[in-house]
Amino acid sequence: MVEQTIFYKDLGNGLPVVFIHPPGMGHKVFLYQENLSQSYRVLLPDLNGHGMSSKRDNPVSIAGFSLDIKEMLDHAGIEKAVICGYSAGSMVAQDFVISYPERTHAMILSGGFPKVNSFVLATEYKIGMRLVKKNRERLANIIARSHTKHPTFQHALKSYMMKADPTVWYEFYKESYHYDCSQQLSTIKVPVLLLYGKRETWMKKHIPYYNQCAFCTLQQIPKAFHQLPSRQSVYFNRIIDHFLTEQAPLFQNMISK
Q1: Model confidence, pTM
Q2: Which of 91, 139, 166, 249 can bridge 131 by disulfide, Cβ–Cβ 3.0-4.6 Å?
Q3: Is residue 46 included in any domain, yes or no?
Q4: Which tens digit of pLDDT belongs to each residue from 175-233?
Q5: Which CATH number does the domain housing residue 84 bear?
């Protein structure tokens, strides 16, 4: 625990890798990324108001979630980490990297975007916000079923999402819907890995923004949609491992010269 507020799992040893979840989900969505702890130190936080983390009194904000991550790293005694954001969790990852570059080793975005800039994505946000207020159990069920076919994992995801504070869940949606770091991406000077499923065609509008990042790699997984950490976990983990062992060190050498 961090000041009895932020819960996180801390697994393995080696280069620290932090996985940041989307609204409502908590760290459970990264069940299969725990396997990476065989080679890395894997940190899986529940952001403020999610899972086993308590709700803070301050207003919900992307910057506030970034502070959660910084406080977790301080508590764990970690100077620098790889920051991985999934879906809307990518907003928190990008905000952290922009705000705390000295604490960042590299950035990984799975289905990431610097701002909401497509009709499909905007529609998904609006549906999510409406369901959080009207029927969050139904929303949790839809999200859980979209992430796995396995009933046991579906139940675990749904149950964990129901632990999220509904106000924080809604505000996370709202804050990330309005967030925009597209003009600040050029300030990111660490290695960046972009991961997408080839079938999530609505993300194509967002990928060109990352041309501003000087040290960026794009990987698209064939026949895959958005839910890569759970639906394509073997490929997802393998790509991350290759990036961290092969590509990121090359970028780091270029950056240091």
Answers
A1: 0.94
A2: 139
A3: yes
A4: 999 999 999 999 999 999 999 999 988 888 899 999 998 889 999 999 999 999 999 99
A5: 3.40.50.1820
